[in-house]
């Protein structure tokens, strides 16, 4: 008897497809990125990111409560201060916008996991991620400020520190500072593989962090490089990172897979502002089904190997997945 292979048997009904599904998304996979600004009662939509907002602390608390009710357990905070200077002093100020926001969330929404992005670009008047001298971003002097920022974030109550600056040695500098300050229990989610990507444009509007001169290609990675990504991830692994992140996500699924196969740590991937904005824009023009495409893109990121997905769709899609 000539038997025909019939894979379609397992696709015939929604029930069968759900039973044999290999990759499953859950709200527990998501980290919700949020932008916190000064003021009160502020919920200002970001023009290039429909559905995302600059939020004052009181509105941030409401947003996190709503996300928590939808099933999202984790958020990551980006501060948008009113005052900026050459060294980003508000990043490590005890009363900085991010520190105050962390305290408010730990007080008002205690069960939510709060991750603090650790970088200087939102806080510097030049928009770069470190100390600048004669047009150059200085690596080692920047490490001291990043370490101070991490300790101040931990003191405010952050559950996880997520350094995103791509300075050489940033993980070990932060790890040593946290340990010396008595925060050896605080994990580091390292932006280990962060590319100098064109997909960050809307974020720079949201965080008011566009560089005032040059660009960030001198410290973020060349999008053409894959082997270098393994080296960067290995260095952060050796320096004590507890989780490794790849950013952006969808254009770098091959990198997510390679990092997943090489390291046993939890792997995060950031579906960045440009990825989100493209889906939103195409949906508004009626070209795609927004929810379907968003879920498909997130599924591909998890299928590639990400355990954790940072996405602006977190709250929107959590109810759909619950």
Tell me what you see in this structure:
The chain has one domain (23-321): TIM Barrel (Alpha-Beta Barrel), CATH 3.20.20.70. The strands form 2 sheets. Strands 1, 2, 3, 4, 5, 8, 9, 10, 11 and 12 form a 10-stranded mixed β-sheet that branches. The radius of gyration is 20 Å and the shape is globular. The protein is of the alpha/beta class and 322 residues long. The protein contains 11 helices and 12 strands. Helix content is 39%, strand content 20%. Helix 4 (139-156) packs across helix 5 (170-180).
Give the helix/strand layout:
Elements: H1 14-19, E1 30-37, E2 43-46, E3 49-56, H2 57-70, E4 74-80, H3 97-108, E5 113-118, E6 131-133, E7 136-138, H4 139-156, E8 160-163, H5 170-180, E9 189-194, H6 201-207, H7 227-239, E10 243-247, H8 253-262, E11 267-271, H9 273-284, H10 290-304, E12 308-311, H11 314-321
Parallel strand pairs: 1-3, 1-4, 1-12, 4-5, 5-8, 9-10, 10-11, 11-12
Antiparallel strand pairs: 2-3, 6-7
* Fourth CATH level, the homologous superfamily: Aldolase class I
Give me the strand/helix succession.
HEEEHEHEEEHEHEHHEHEHHEH
Rg result: 20 Å
Low-confidence stretches: none
* SS content category: alpha/beta
CATH topology: TIM Barrel
Shape: globular
The total domain count is 1
In angstroms, what separates the terminal alpha carbons? 46 Å
**How much of the residues is beta strand, in percent?**
15-25%
What is the total tally of β strands? 12
Mean pLDDT across all residues, rounded?
A: 94
Query: What is the CATH domain class?
Result: Alpha Beta
Tally of contiguous helical segments: 11
Identify the CATH architecture: Alpha-Beta Barrel
């Amino acid at each position: 008897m000539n038997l025909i292979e019939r894979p379609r048997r397992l696709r015939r009904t929604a029930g069968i497809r759900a039973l044999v599904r290999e990759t499953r998304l859950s709200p527990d996979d998501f980290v919700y990125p949020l932008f916190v600004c000064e003021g009160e009662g502020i919920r200002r939509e970001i023009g290039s990111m429909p559905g995302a907002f600059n939020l004052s602390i009181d509105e941030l608390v409401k947003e996190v409560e709503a996300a928590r009710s939808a099933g999202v357990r984790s958020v990551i905070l980006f501060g948008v201060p009113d005052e900026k200077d050459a060294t980003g002093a508000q990043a490590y100020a005890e009363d900085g916008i991010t520190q105050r926001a962390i305290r408010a969330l730990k007080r008002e929404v205690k069960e939510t996991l709060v991750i603090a992005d650790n970088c200087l670009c939102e806080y510097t008047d030049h928009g770069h991620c470190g100390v600048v001298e004669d047009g150059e971003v200085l690596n080692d002097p920047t490490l001291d400020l990043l370490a101070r920022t991490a300790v101040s974030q931990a003191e405010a109550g952050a559950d996880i520190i997520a350094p995103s600056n791509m300075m050489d040695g940033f993980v070990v500098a932060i790890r040593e500072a946290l340990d010396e300050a008595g925060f050896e229990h605080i994990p580091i989610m390292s932006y280990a593989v962060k590319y100098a990507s064109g997909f960050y444009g809307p974020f720079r509007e949201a965080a008011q962090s566009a560089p005032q001169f040059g660009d960030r290609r001198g410290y973020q990675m060349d999008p053409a490089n894959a082997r270098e990504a393994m080296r960067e991830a290995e260095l952060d692994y050796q320096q004590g990172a507890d989780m490794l992140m790849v950013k952006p996500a969808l254009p770098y699924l091959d990198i997510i897979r390679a990092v997943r196969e090489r390291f046993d740590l939890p792997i995060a991937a950031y579906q960045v502002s440009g990825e989100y904005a493209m889906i939103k824009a195409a949906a508004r023009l009626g070209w795609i089904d927004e929810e379907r495409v968003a879920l498909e893109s997130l599924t591909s990121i998890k299928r590639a190997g990400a355990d954790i997905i940072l996405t602006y769709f977190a709250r929107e899609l959590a109810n759909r997945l619950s």
